[in-house]
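Supplementary Methods S3. Input chains for the assembly prediction are listed below.
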Amino acid sequence: MASVHRVSFTQRFKMYWVRHLQQALASLGELWRTPLSSMLSIAVIGVCLSMPAALQLAYKNVQRLTDSIQSNSQISLYLQQSVTEKEAKAWQLELSSEGGVADTQFVHRDQGLDQLQQRAGFGSVLSLLEDNPLPHVIVVQLASSWQSADKAEQLLSQLAQAPWVEQAKLDLEWLERLDALRAMFSQSALFLIVLLVAAVVLIISNTLRLNILSRRDEIEVMKLLGASSRFIQRPFLYTGFWIGLTGGLLAWVLCNLMLFWCEYALSQLGLAFGQQLTLLGQSAQEFLLLMISALGVSLLASWWSVRRNIRLIEPK
Amino acid sequence: MASVHRVSFTQRFKMYWVRHLQQALASLGELWRTPLSSMLSIAVIGVCLSMPAALQLAYKNVQRLTDSIQSNSQISLYLQQSVTEKEAKAWQLELSSEGGVADTQFVHRDQGLDQLQQRAGFGSVLSLLEDNPLPHVIVVQLASSWQSADKAEQLLSQLAQAPWVEQAKLDLEWLERLDALRAMFSQSALFLIVLLVAAVVLIISNTLRLNILSRRDEIEVMKLLGASSRFIQRPFLYTGFWIGLTGGLLAWVLCNLMLFWCEYALSQLGLAFGQQLTLLGQSAQEFLLLMISALGVSLLASWWSVRRNIRLIEPK
Amino acid sequence: MIRFEQVSKVYPGSHRALQKVSFNLEQGQMAFLTGHSGAGKSTLLKLITAIERPSDGQVFIGNRDISRIKASQVPYLRRQIGVIFQDYKLLNDKTVFDNVALPLIIDGYGLSDITKRVHAALDKVGLHDKARFLPLELSGGEQQRVGIARAVVNKPALLIADEPTGNLDQELSLEIMRLFEQFNQVGVTVLIASHDLNLIQERGYPCLVLKQGQLAHNGLLREQL
Amino acid sequence: MIRFEQVSKVYPGSHRALQKVSFNLEQGQMAFLTGHSGAGKSTLLKLITAIERPSDGQVFIGNRDISRIKASQVPYLRRQIGVIFQDYKLLNDKTVFDNVALPLIIDGYGLSDITKRVHAALDKVGLHDKARFLPLELSGGEQQRVGIARAVVNKPALLIADEPTGNLDQELSLEIMRLFEQFNQVGVTVLIASHDLNLIQERGYPCLVLKQGQLAHNGLLREQL
Ligand SMILES: Nc1ncnc2c1ncn2[C@@H]1O[C@H](COP(=O)(O)OP(=O)(O)OP(=O)(O)O)[C@@H](O)[C@H]1O
Ligand SMILES: Nc1ncnc2c1ncn2[C@@H]1O[C@H](COP(=O)(O)OP(=O)(O)OP(=O)(O)O)[C@@H](O)[C@H]1O
Ligand SMILES: [Mg+2]
Ligand SMILES: [Mg+2]
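Predicted structure tokens for the full assembly:
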């Protein structure tokens, strides 16, 4: 059976792409025509996507912070009172080459007293002392590979056995607390990210579902006129694409606003603490990752929802 | 002009309420028939409402924490070395009756040394001392009305002038930092709450808009058959009511889950810090407030959206 | 009952759909409205139910000028008129029963009343056994009859029908006409738009003939089309 | 072109809408399909366009058995058939032009081709000046003619019409019939469901008569109803 006139293949191929472009622009126009509803979807998706991005940034910054704290984690060796400065410095040299030791620092007993005096409330008290009661101290900086709680403790007990050492101290609790905090943070962040991505999927697929339902008649007629499912699906997929794209961009903007706000807040806090804190921003790769995942998630969600819902509409 | 048969007024009145009930149940059934979409709206609204509730809880807990810290804010008076225990205790009595002073505590110099020894790293060092270099200390607890930074400072300088006092110390910076933190927290919380409530309004009104659009034909026919706008609006308003109610309940559940999680996290952290922390939960009034605002916001949003969108649908 | 006085209707961006149409239909009368496709029949009927407002002139329904009726009054007007629409306007997700019950529900009838009246109306159009069907499960003619049942279930004082037999075969058309006549006999005013000249000419009812928006004839029809 | 072999159709929860219907319509033939309301006319046409599947028997369109056609093949089948629906099935938010252009867009025609063909089709049904209107701004008969224009714009080899003149007056009906005859003369197979016996009897075309789902007559019609 053949129709009276048919379209040539090249014509059909050309028109395929023309239609693609038309449908892409039309679905953009459609979003534009119902600004409230589309802005809402985009806003919700932007907010939902900005959270994982913000969490990732936060994680990055916390990581850096804990790294810098951990890389500051050190063992203080309080030497015997009898140890002279010379002996101490000689031993310091020896120590430097030992495994797990990144750096060593010699603190003279007088320097130690100065530091102690600067601590709150002791200044005037300690200045009343005639003799310096403090010993020399060697501060051992741990190598980065030795900064886990176990390994640090191992090194500690090893160093404590040295004959020069009166007492060896490691702020181990801090390490443990930090590890606990970090694990908790990354766990809850992961949980939140999974939740939020699920929300994005649900919201996009629901938006498209309602979109499809409100154009039920049109889809029915298109099917009656012989439009293939793919042809009918395309405008909705483009809608999903645009929502994903703009939602991703919005997420990026929001994320940077949050960063900006946090930096301001930190700078205010920093003033009170007399310290200057800066934050790491989003790298180009991370921006790209955000956009790709926004698009990927929204296209997948759209595809799933559109296929499912268009299949349900059958002409009667 | 009169119809051939008309309905009596009492009949009409009775049926008015019967219809009300029917429409309320029907719109609940409607939500049940499209579980995905309604669960989604409810979930989004629940999440959005849970945040302000959680923030309020957090604020309450932070408030309590800062209160307890502030109420612990104290001035330490380091007495002259020459002051004896007896003299000091006499003066302590005098101080107690002074304005701005809530409580005083005498710390013996030996007690002070013990405390100092417990601080990290000084234990063994100070035990080497022959003489206790520390003076007696009187700790002055500030009255709650004197705990602002200005007033505390005023009291400090006043006490510092006393002849027995070698040095007076107030941890003023802490107070300032806490104030800054608290202001920042409440500011951003307010901002977030406004944003989230706006999101709830938008989401509910959009949900109802799409709901109305997908029943456009039905509304048109109802109008043609002489249904009043109020009659047509009612099922949608009930939908808004149910969404608000369930969304509010969900928010409450989520809020308590968060509280539970935070308590667990704090208890874990507390283990590391060797302290036991508890959190304040939601009071019955706060639960009621949450439900009322959830219902209020959703009913207002529904009413606005429904009126606006139903008016736009006119039979042709 | 229905009185048009120099009524014109101009749709935006269109020519005049109705031009200075005047006529009077007494209470309890029955009349036909005919004319070519696009002559303005549906427009005239839409003016009666306030779906459209006249651009000029006045429309009286039962001595009340509805040409500038307030929007809040429109529902009360419509509840007193039974309308059969050219495109049925049934709710596709409600059963035939629920569709026919709609005007009664809107008017606040009791449940037992509703059941009784709906079944009576469905009986009259021969669809008693289809009460539990959805409109899309019915044939075109059956859907049209559901629309007719819905229009008469409320026993309105005024019945308006737009092409009520367009999808019905001759036998059924005659039956429906007889139904309208029965209503007319108990005092209901009936106005029927139709292009089915056979149906109109056989009966002795007056006929309004529209030609391009103008009233070309008002009275008995004897082959003047 | 169309061949039914012992086709039955039972709708779920309903009696048999079609019972063992067999007939054959040669390529290039024109035929009518008639019967009472609910006799199964629309059902028969829905089987041809695979909107419904037969419960039993086989339906051949151009030597191809479509009774168990794959869902992915249905669009290609439908693109080769021009269908006029009983309830028009126009898109109310698209202009008349866009409605008529739809089959061409789906078939991948070029833009200039589309413009040319759509205007030609609208010309044929006398709606050239309504191209920019929305369907709801047209009278019932005009909407029906838009549906006819859309069905023929694609110049399909098979044309199927369900009650194409239900809302048209006699003159317009005759004109549309002449249009169908023109198509038939250039080789298009045409099948028209109608209850308008006047229209059918005047012409010398074969007629399928359905009675409660059964084929009661197949051939020329001479007052046997
Ligand atoms: N909403 C509208 N906007 C613009 N023009 C309209 C509108 N409704 C109808 N028209 C035009 O007004 C004229 C009269 O339309 P109407 O529906 O009254 O005709 P009719 O007599 O009912 O025809 P039919 O028998 O085909 O139903 C037509 O030309 C139509 O195109
Ligand atoms: N989807 C469906 N589900 C159940 N029953 C149906 C369905 N469609 C049609 N029917 C029934 O099948 C019978 C035949 O319907 P069909 O639409 O084929 O009639 P028709 O000959 O086109 O009538 P008309 O002239 O009134 O349009 C009717 O009794 C109808 O109620
Ligand atoms: Mg009309
Ligand atoms: Mg039919």
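Chain A has two domains: 18-68+178-311, 74-170. Chain A has ten helices and four strands.
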